[in-house]
Amino acid sequence: MVFPSNQSACAQPPAGRVRSSLSVAVGVILGAVVYCSGNNANAQQPDPPGQSEPGETPQHEAYLFAHMTHRDYGRLYYSVSRDGLHWKQLGGGKRVFDEYKGHPSIVLGHDGRYYLVGNRSDAAETIHFWVSDDLIHWEKHSDFTPDIHSIPDYPEALQRIGAPKLFYDSASRQYVLTWHTPHVVAPQDDPEAYWASQRTIYVTSADLKQFSAPAKLFDWNFATIDVVLQRDGDAYYAILKDETYPTLDWVTGKTIRIAKSANLLGPYAEPGPPLSPNFREAPNLIPSPNGTCWYLYYEQYPGVSYGLSVSDSLDGKWFHISGNTNFADWDKYRMPAKVRHGCMLVISKQQYDALCDSFP
Asked: Which residues contact residue 15 at a Cβ distance below 8 angstroms, ignoring those fewer than 6 apart?
């Protein structure tokens, strides 16, 4: 047992007052242990589930968070973690790839290489892709300009491409590229009308060079952005931000929710209840180190903090973890300050070491 270093709580008796009786000494020691443990009760709160036991080889060894920062929005930075809970930023706060611009989204693709997607701005018409063998060196792979005005059942879509994101489905051996596109120009007296008009669009591809025609991913008539797709078992899940503004008539607004489908491209059932508080966005989903739980991160924007919810099933109930409070006794996870959204993915210990060496 390690005793706390709080000397006021666990002070030693003054010199010359040491008891000679063994039984009294044992009683004093046990009393000190009980007192100190009670005085630091918060530090004894259980850690989030999903961690590997000491000596157990984790199923998932390490994680990469490719993200932007509040100071340098839309550029590429890396943070890494061994346990999916405690993250450290790499590169001394410097960009890891100067050519990149967008909302970072990386997937491990059909050929064992990593693919990164971005765009210069929402107003830019072209989406860009890069490829890497090691997550360190990136080279250009392709460009894609979707025909926004050809989207079925979306005749008033505006030429806007928001936050392109990639998912690779190994079962069908195809990529799904999603983004959000609005159909209302923001009026001066109601800027939320623009965001309430966002709809999630997708295309598919076998190689990220040839693409299908764009289409809406969901049938629902409300706003969604920041969609992350995940397959688990025989089902597909769309983790998304409900982009309607929260009111008493729409209490789920600006929260993270999950929709489910038996098929990759839907139809998706209407999303379930919120998994986060209001005014959260940019969900990231990773499996826990021992593979028994899911860790769902989301940003409290703009760049305020990151929240974390945990469940043992994508169908199950979720609860929030305490972290980023700046009170060590309560923090069960830690993120670098002012990180903004991007993507998280599982990496190996070898890749973790290589990233730390390359971006010290």
From this structure: none
271-318 confidence digits (pLDDT tens) = 999 999 999 999 999 999 999 999 999 999 998 999 999 999 999 899
- Identify the pLDDT of residue 15: 38
Identify the domain containing residue 73 by its residue range. 62-358
Q: How many CB atoms lie within 10 A of CB 112?
A: 7
332: in domain: yes
Q: Decide: 300 and 280 in contact? Cβ < 8 Å.
A: yes
Q: Where do we find the tokens 């990136």?
A: 138
How far is Cα 332 from Cα 350, in angstroms, rounded to an integer? 25
Neighbours of 155 (CB within 10 A): 9
The CATH number of the domain holding residue 322 is 2.115.10.20
154 inside domain: yes
Number of domains within the chain: 1
How far is C-alpha 8 from the geometric centre of its chain's CA atoms? 41
Q: Order of strands, edge to edge, in the sheet holding 114-118?
A: 105-108, 114-118, 127-132, 139-144
pLDDT band at 267 (very low <50, low <70, confident <90, very high): very high
Span 8-45, pLDDT tens digits: 333 333 333 333 343 433 343 333 333 333 334 445 67
Exposed e or buried b for every residue in 31-47, given b needs 16+ CB within 10 A? eeeeeeeeeeeeeeeee
